[in-house]
User: Which sequence fits this backbone?
């Protein structure tokens, strides 16, 4: 208690021809258990009602509120002010298109990515509503769930060296998603089909191994391991591919 | 030619959470063009926050042995305190197992039966169970929400999340369009038929007309009309407001609101009732236990409504802990020990550390009761067709279908989204087959012009300079303080009177910001009158219902009165009125399970014949 916090917030409304990108400064007295959700809501309601940002669940589940907090991508709802210095700078995520201030358009990016990688169970089987379900080992179900926990917040994309240089890079989020489907026996795609999707410079071979994705992931997904596994598998596929072509 | 951008589609789903997307999937699979609108990217919908699971009577796990749709039906009807539509409850329980298996087929990594011995906790005690070999690998279930059998299918602590992602994968696979950051602000209708909606883009602020043969409201609940709510920021009742604004479509049972005793302060994130089940205690400002004083026998283990009531009472008596976010109480689980907290209550430990910066192993957790679920919503028939307008449908928490009556069971809300989506989707397909509608361009133009004028008046502060956030706070305070868990005639009357004044003020809102682009203040300003009208529906219906049923608990009418109130409230709002019009209909055409005792909770019942029976409360825990 007792700290007076200074917030430097990036401002720009692309729809307003009078708006030029700049930083606005706001001051708030720190309160107990103060998160950036509390901070930004108070600033909008008490100081500047035009301030744009995104929150939804405010409980670390939906992935809406990713932003760059003192230089590091993270979920604002999960960030306590007491873990930050007195001066806090908030910027929108890079890579994604700016909607305004701290709000970026992740929806368009993720829909396009999910279309591109075929993010669904590919199967020729037909569902029979009256039949008992296919059995699955619980350990496998939990392994799939571990990768399924991604909330598509965009932190790994914003922190990625390749994604910041190239628009067409899939990023850890999409590669992790593919790893999830490769684990799943219900998906009938063959390794060669996965290779078509990610065995390129826009996919796994574009990864420079900087691994900021793993450092910033708010769900602490094992992205480093998954990228390593995919690179190995796709490396072998590439070799097989060469011989087939040759 | 219309002077604006227009989209045409067979089906327009307003809302892209689980219910909206499940309906769209059904229509798309039948070859109909579907567009979903969503305020947020679809995978951020509030469905993702339902962590507990989805009830379906598969009966695979040993504690679910012998389960079937009949047992699930009885749990659901009793849970509703006989307020539900029993035909709908029957449809729901019969379809739920199929819906769970279908989701497995589409990719849900449901937890599965692991044969052999394992232990579980209940009421602070440890028990043992043995799963059988023959069921290995089938979908398992957990204990949740006070049901007769373990019936809640789950994926670890993220069932809503996996369901929503898998459903949206299906949406992507089928090529269903999702227009995200698009907010429907009014329905296009001629008093008989609904033909779409006027929509505001939350990226650019532009208005757009969506014309559709069938329109579905699947916007979730309206918890954010309360000050303290576990609901997401976006659950402000947009769909219910559009329905009310028609003057024709009724909101069913608006007064049926569920609360949860332990939301953390300040963000109202839930911590499970398992904390108390395992031996956690509630403390006041002097760090003294107060529940034994009010409930000597059961203390903290009394039912959630009773605990919430005494918490609210104790705070009002001045024993709350003062904080910048209002008064609260403490939840103490320190004595359970590090090992127990880190294994059996891991989620609680994570929530406290991540969102409070409090370590529950060594420190107290600030808590207070919070609004949790709205059983009421857009009244539909069992096909999901809204009362009053042809071509309008509703599903999920936004609808009053009505399988929850006056109390929803844990695990039945997530199940409803998928099951209702499947059933209502099928009925919409039947509706669309061979159906044609004439789009009235003059009507569309009038509807758009009306909204554009509304926006212009707000931006130019033509009607006044009321601050939209102050109006919202005033409304939320009324509901929280006087239309909360335990209600009485005097407080409800005061709330109705005050909300009528607030409604007048809401007409005079003017913006502080310039309204250009995706202005967030304008988004709220466009909704605020509707939110206050909805708040009046809740309060006025609660005032009129002179009985206690499920979550509607009247201190001055403590009996469930089947003689006079075995009925569903239907609230409509006529143009220019200052209060909703309340009508009533029988709760159910079919009474497969006749009204009786729920077998838990305090019950005083006035039967249809006027006979009074009374029973004491039993402990009950669950989310």
Assistant:
């Amino acid at each position: 208690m007792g700290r007076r916090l200074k917030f430097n917030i990036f401002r720009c409304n692309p729809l307003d021809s009078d708006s030029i990108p700049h930083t606005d400064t706001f001051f708030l007295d720190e309160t107990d258990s103060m998160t950036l959700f509390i901070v930004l809501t108070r600033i909008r309601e008490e100081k500047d009602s035009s301030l744009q940002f995104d929150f939804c669940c405010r409980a670390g589940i939906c992935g809406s509120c990713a932003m760059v907090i003192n230089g590091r991508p993270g979920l604002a709802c999960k960030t306590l002010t007491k873990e930050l210095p007195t001066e806090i700078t908030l910027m929108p995520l890079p890579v994604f298109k700016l909607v305004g201030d701290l709000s970026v358009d992740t929806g368009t990016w993720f829909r396009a990515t999910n279309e591109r990688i075929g993010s669904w169970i590919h199967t020729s089987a037909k569902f029979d509503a009256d039949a008992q379900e296919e059995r699955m080992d619980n350990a496998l179900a939990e392994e799939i769930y571990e990768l399924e926990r991604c909330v598509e917040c965009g932190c790994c994309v914003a922190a990625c060296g390749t994604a910041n240089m190239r628009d067409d890079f899939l990023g850890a989020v999409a590669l992790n998603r593919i790893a999830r489907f490769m684990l799943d026996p219900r998906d009938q795609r063959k390794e060669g089909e996965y290779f078509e999707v990610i065995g390129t410079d826009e996919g796994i071979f574009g990864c420079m191994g900087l691994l900021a994705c793993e450092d910033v992931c708010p769900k602490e997904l094992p992205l480093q391991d998954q990228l390593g596994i995919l690179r190995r598998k796709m490396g072998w596929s590439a070799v097989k591919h060469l011989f087939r072509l040759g | 030619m219309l002077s604006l951008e227009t989209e045409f589609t067979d089906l327009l789903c307003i809302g892209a959470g689980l219910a909206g997307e499940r309906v769209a999937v059904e229509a798309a699979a039948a070859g109909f063009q579907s567009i979903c609108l969503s305020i947020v990217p679809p995978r951020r919908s509030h469905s993702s926050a339902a962590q507990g699971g989805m009830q379906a009577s598969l009966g695979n796990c040993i504690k679910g042995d012998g389960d079937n749709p009949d047992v699930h039906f009885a749990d659901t009807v009793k849970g509703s305190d006989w307020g539900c539509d029993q035909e709908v409850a029957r449809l729901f329980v019969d379809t739920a197992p199929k819906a769970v298996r279908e989701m497995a087929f589409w990719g849900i990594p449901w937890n599965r039966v692991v044969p052999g011995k394992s232990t579980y906790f209940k009421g602070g005690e440890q028990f043992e169970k043995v799963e059988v070999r023959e069921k290995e690998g089938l979908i398992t279930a957990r204990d949740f929400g006070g049901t007769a059998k373990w019936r809640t299918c789950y994926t670890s602590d993220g069932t809503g999340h996996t369901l929503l992602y898998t459903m949206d994968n299906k949406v992507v696979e089928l090529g269903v369009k999702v227009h995200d950051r698009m907010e429907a602000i009014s329905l296009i209708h001629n008093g008989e038929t609904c033909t779409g909606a006027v929509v505001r883009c939350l990226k650019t602020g532009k208005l757009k007309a969506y014309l559709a043969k069938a329109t579905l409201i699947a916007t979730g609940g309206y918890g954010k009309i309360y000050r303290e709510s576990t609901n997401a920021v976006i659950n402000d009742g947009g769909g219910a407001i559009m329905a009310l604004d028609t003057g024709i479509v009724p909101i069913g049972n608006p007064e049926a609101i569920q609360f949860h005793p332990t939301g953390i302060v300040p963000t109202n994130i839930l911590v499970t009732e398992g904390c108390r089940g395992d031996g956690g205690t509630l403390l006041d400002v002097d760090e003294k236990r107060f529940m034994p004083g009010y409930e000597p026998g059961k203390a903290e283990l009394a039912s959630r409504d009773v605990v919430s009531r005494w918490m609210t009472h104790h705070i009002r008596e001045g024993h709350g802990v003062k904080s910048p976010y209002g008064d609260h109480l403490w939840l103490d689980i320190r004595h359970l020990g590090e090992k127990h907290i880190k294994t059996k209550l891991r989620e609680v430990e994570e929530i406290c550390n991540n969102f409070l910066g409090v370590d529950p192993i060594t420190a107290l957790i600030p808590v207070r009761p919070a609004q949790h679920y709205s059983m009421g919503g857009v009244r539909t028939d069992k096909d999901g067709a809204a009362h009053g307008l042809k071509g309008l449908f509703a599903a999920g928490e936004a609808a009053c279908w009505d399988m929850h009556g006056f109390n929803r069971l844990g695990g039945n809300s997530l199940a409803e989204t998928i099951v209702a989506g499947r059933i209502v989707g099928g009925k919409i397909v039947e509706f669309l087959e061979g159906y044609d509608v004439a789009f009235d361009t003059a009507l569309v133009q009038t509807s758009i012009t009306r909204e554009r004028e509304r926006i212009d008046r707000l931006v130019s502060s033509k009607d006044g300079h009321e601050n939209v956030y102050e109006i919202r706070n005033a409304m939320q305070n009324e509901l929280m303080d006087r239309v909360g868990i335990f209600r009485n005639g005097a407080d409800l009357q005061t709330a109705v009177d005050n909300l009528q004044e607030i409604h007048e003020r809401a007409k005079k809102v003017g913006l502080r910001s310039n309204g250009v682009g995706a202005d967030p203040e304008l988004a709220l300003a466009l909704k605020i009158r509707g939110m206050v009208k909805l708040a009046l529906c809740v309060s006025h219906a609660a005032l009129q219902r002179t009985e206690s049923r499920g979550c509607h608990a009247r201190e001055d009418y403590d009996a469930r009165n089947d003689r006079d109130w075995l009925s569903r409230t239907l609230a409509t709002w006529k143009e220019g009125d200052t209060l909703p019009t309340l009508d009533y209909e029988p709760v159910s055409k079919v009474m497969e399970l006749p009204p009786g005792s729920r077998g838990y909770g305090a019950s005083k019942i006035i039967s249809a014949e006027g006979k009074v029976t009374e029973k004491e409360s039993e402990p009950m825990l669950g989310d």
Observations:
- The radius of gyration of chain B is 24 Å.
- The first strand of chain B starts at residue 6 and ends at 14.
